[in-house]
């Protein structure tokens, strides 16, 4: 949340330069507050596990957030009870005439599948196009980040020779960028993907602000300059044991996976891993809600226009 200080206090200019949200008394006196409407398009097979992970991160904020869950289609799920989907998930056709403050599109286990072979690819594109006119800021996570780059920048699918799996160190860029507010200069984050997000490739082919990178994992965090589209190539929402579950699944399937990097104590798969990325995951989502959503969205979502994306920096 912002701090409210006198309009002419000398500290105001310094804090604003550091992208700390300072609200002058004149604005605070007329401020209207309402819950934020955030839509989660859950593309992961284990929907209950995934929705819980994202809701945990969204809850770490003083802002009140009203969350709606969206499914990509009505195909039966092998990993989620039909009753759960019917009770808690909505179809796109029922919400497409509404406006939302934020949209989160999760990852999906489609790293080795070409976009045109994804059964719901055209429908996903329709939702992403819809978000341009109905959502203040969209957060693309892992596979969705690759899909978003394809849609917005027509970037071809780039696949690594081997799956990237583990917890990697990242360095921040543009330390005063709002999304990086409070981040350490270096931080850990988990990855589990085949997609390749080369820093050079992203820099040469887009106008994105590259905010955090890893020497091994490539770009981790990037955003459009208006902060309406934010790309996270890893999984800040993962629980401590999620990578372990994926690793054991891949072992059972006979894919001969490499042990996740920097994850198991002493690289022993029989040791219990610990989450070393939790604090930055919470911080990332808090910053997205605050700086990309709350500060840019109108009080009345019916007043959706280009004006809403003009904010005081």
TrEMBL record:
The active site is at residues 142, 235, 237. Substrate binds at residues 163, 192, 249. Its main location: cytoplasm. SUPFAM superfamilies: Class I glutamine amidotransferase-like. It comes from the Bacteria. Coiled coil: none annotated. Signal peptide: none annotated. It is found in: Cytoplasm. InterPro entries: Class_I_gatase-like, HST_MetA, MetA_family. It catalyses: L-homoserine + succinyl-CoA = O-succinyl-L-homoserine + CoA. The record marks 111 as: Important for acyl-CoA specificity. Pathway: Amino-acid biosynthesis; L-methionine biosynthesis via de novo pathway; O-succinyl-L-homoserine from L-homoserine: step 1/1. Its EC number is 2.3.1.46. It is an enzyme of class 2 (transferase). CDD domains: GATase1_HTS. Gene3D superfamilies: 3.40.50.880. Transmembrane segments: none annotated. Keywords: Acyltransferase, Amino-acid biosynthesis, Cytoplasm, Methionine biosynthesis, Transferase. NCBIfam families: metA. PANTHER family: HOMOSERINE O-SUCCINYLTRANSFERASE. Transfers a succinyl group from succinyl-CoA to L-homoserine, forming succinyl-L-homoserine. This is Homoserine O-succinyltransferase. It comes from Vibrio marisflavi CECT 7928.
């Amino acid at each position: 949340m912002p701090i409210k200080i006198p309009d002419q206090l000398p500290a105001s200019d310094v804090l604003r330069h550091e992208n700390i949200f300072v609200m002058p008394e004149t604005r605070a006196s007329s401020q209207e507050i309402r819950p934020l409407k955030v839509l989660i398009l859950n593309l992961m097979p284990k929907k209950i596990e995934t929705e819980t992970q994202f809701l945990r991160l969204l809850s770490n904020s003083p802002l009140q957030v009203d969350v709606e869950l969206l499914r990509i289609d009505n195909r039966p799920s092998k990993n989620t009870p039909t009753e759960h989907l019917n009770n808690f998930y909505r179809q796109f056709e029922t919400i497409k005439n509404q406006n939302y403050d934020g949209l989160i599109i999760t990852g999906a286990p489609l790293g080795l599948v070409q976009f045109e072979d994804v059964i719901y690819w055209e429908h996903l594109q329709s939702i992403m196009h819809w978000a341009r006119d109905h959502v203040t800021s969209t957060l693309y996570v892992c596979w969705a980040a690759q899909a978003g780059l394809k849609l917005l920048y027509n970037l071809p699918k780039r696949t690594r020779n081997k799956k990237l799996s583990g917890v990697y160190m990242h360095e921040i860029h543009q330390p005063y960028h709002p999304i990086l507010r409070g981040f350490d200069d270096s931080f850990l984050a988990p990855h589990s993907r085949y997609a390749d997000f080369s820093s050079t490739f992203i820099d040469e082919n887009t106008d994105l602000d590259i905010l955090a990178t890893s020497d091994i994992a490539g770009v981790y965090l990037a955003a459009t300059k208006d902060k309406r589209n934010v790309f996270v190539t890893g999984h800040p929402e993962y629980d401590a044991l999620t990578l372990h579950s994926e690793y054991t699944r891949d072992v059972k399937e006979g894919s001969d996976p490499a042990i996740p990097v920097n994850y198991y104590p002493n690289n022993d798969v029989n040791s219990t891993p610990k989450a070393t990325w939790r604090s930055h995951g919470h911080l990332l989502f808090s910053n997205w809600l605050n700086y990309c959503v709350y500060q840019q969205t109108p009080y009345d979502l019916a007043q959706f226009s280009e004006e809403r994306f003009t904010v005081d920096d």
